[in-house]
Structure formats: C-alpha cells, structure tokens
Amino acid sequence: MCSRFFSFVGALLIGLMPFTIPVHAQEITKEQDSGGKWPNTISEYRELQQNPEAYPPFNLSNINLEATSTHPVVDNRIAALWQFDPEAEDTKKVVRSCTANHIEGKFWITARHCVTSEKDFLGYLEQSDGEVAGVENTYTISEHHDLALIKVGRGISAQTFDLPEEKIAIGKVLTLIGYGGSNDFSSIARVESVAHLDKFNVGFSTYYLDVLETVSLTDSRSCNGDSGGAVFAGNTIHAVHTAGAINFDCSPGEGKKMWHSAISPHTAWIHQIMSSENSTSVEEEQRAFEGFRSRYRIAEDQPSATFSSSLSPLSS
Q1: Do residues 253 and 180 lie in contact, with contact meaning Cβ atoms separated by under 8 Å?
Q2: Any keyword Transferase (predicted)?
Q3: Kind of pairing between the strands at 257-262 and 207-216
C-alpha cells in the first residue's frame, strides 16, 4: 500500500513505519469557502455549537483524486487529525499528522505519539466529507502506552466503534484503516494477529506496553502515514496503529510485521475519562475554537504534507 503519505519521523528513526495505500491527491493549498459564514469570534463559535448544520462542510469538490489502489474507502467512524506544527516558526501553521477513531459522543481515540503536547494541544479533526470539529482536550495513560483520547466540540456527525471486552485471539483477521498525509479518504490493509506483547522496544530508551503484533495478509503493508488508525474486526476496535517494518520506498510486501497498541487492557480507563470529562470548560471551548478556526485559514504558501517531529521515534 504505497503512497506519498508524510512521515511523523522521530529523532531516532529505527525503521518503524505505518501502512499506506497507493493514492495521489492534490494538496489543499489555499483558503476555500463552502459558502457558509465561518466563526471568527468565540461567540460565533458558540452559535455553531448550538446549530452546527448552519455551517456547511468544507468544500472538497475541486480536489482531484487519482487512486492507483483498487480499495480506497470512506469510513464515517474515522477522521484525519490536524494540529499546529510545534516545530514551525509560524505558530499558526497546521499539518495533518494522524488518524482518530470515534468511540462515543465527544470522544475519539488515536496513538499517544500523535498528540505532541497533551497540555496545550491545538488542532482539529476532519472527515472526508469536509465536516470539522475542534479539539477541546487530550488524555493519555502514560508515556509507555501509545493510546490517547481526544475530546472535540460539535461539527462532525460520525458513527462509532465498539470498545473491546477482551483481547483479540491469535490467528484472527483484522482490518487496519487510516488516513495519510495527502489523502482525503481512508485506505485499508488486511492483517492477522500473531502475538500479544507485554513490552515492545522502539528505541534505546523508549518502549510501549500492551502491544498487538500483526502481519500483512496481502501486498498492502507498512509505509509512511496513518499512526492512530483503527485495527478492528466487525465493529469492534481492538487497537490503534503504532508502527510497522521499515519500508522507505513504499514497496508492497505480504507477511510484513506491524505493531499496534491494544485497547482492551484500558477500557475501564477510557470509560472513566468519558464519564468524568464529558463537559466542556471555558478553556477547552477556547482551545477548540482556535483549532476549528485554523481550518479555514489555510494559506497559499502553507504545505500540508511535510511534518517531522523530534517527539517520537515512530513515523505516523
């Protein structure tokens, strides 16, 4: 599954890259308006939260998609995660980084290494139909668990994944799905569960706990893009994508290993966060407004598909 997905590459690249699919898409490089009146003040944003249908989705009709894959898909349960680039001199620059998956109401789940700064994360989610929601807050378990919850404001109407009650059995076939840096739709890979790892080393001093190891069942395999993408069977999301075997030239390969952060050991924590953090504070509202507003200020000279981070040795 090779594509021109961008890398979220860390300070120490150790050959861990997530999957992609062969697709070519025109970058969104200038401000485009769907015809609605987009909020420029917090009061206008509050009005949107009460009446989101008054703000039509971003217009993607002029985006030319030329897929070389036979399996591009659109899945209403996932969205692309965009964030302010922490390395850019222009603090208003936003980049697509990862994939997030809807699990309930205001809450989505992704990989922890996609959330560059939990305390002051600024960004938004966008689906392939152009619906957008600003990020209100993010929540993580620990630096050694590659899971993160994202809480968003209104703006996206999405279906949900079910959370797992137990670990997926070994030998089961699952689907890996996610966005890439230049795609405006998601793509999939079929994988088989081969091992549950208590600890997975990703660097000299970095490791993750509770990791599901899989292998690709077709030529669709790991490449640059898609950290945080759902690994699911039926409607149950069992893990989010963390890393894959080295594949610099995005060549196809059956039987290639991939690693994903398991969700079932942490369902109690997820339910606790969703229950206790369901309301929105004034600070969270302001943060979501800033993230939402950035979507409609994409400048002509702003690239949207190059991003490297020193925060993680994993590409996304």
Answers
A1: no
A2: no
A3: antiparallel
First to last CA, the chain: 14
Residue 306 has pLDDT above 80, yes or no: no
CA dihedral 210, 143, 285, 78 (to 10 degrees): -40
- Is 57 in contact with 130 (CB distance < 8 Å)? yes
Question: Quick one: DSSP state of residue 61?
Answer: T
Domains in the chain, CATH or no CATH each: 26-60+71-160+267-294 (2.40.10.10), 173-264 (2.40.10.10)
Residues 1, 160 contacting (CB under 8 angstroms): no
Q: What is the model's pTM?
A: 0.78
pLDDT tens-place string over residues 70-118: 356 778 899 989 887 656 655 567 777 789 999 999 999 999 998 876 6
E-state strands within the chain: 23-25, 65-67, 72-73, 78-84, 94-104, 107-110, 123-126, 132-140, 148-152, 173-178, 186-201, 207-216, 230-233, 236-244, 257-262
- C-beta neighbour count of 31 within 10 angstroms: 12
Q: Measure the CA angle with vertex 303, ends 301 and 306; round to 5°.
A: 155
Q: Count how many residues are written for the chain.
A: 316
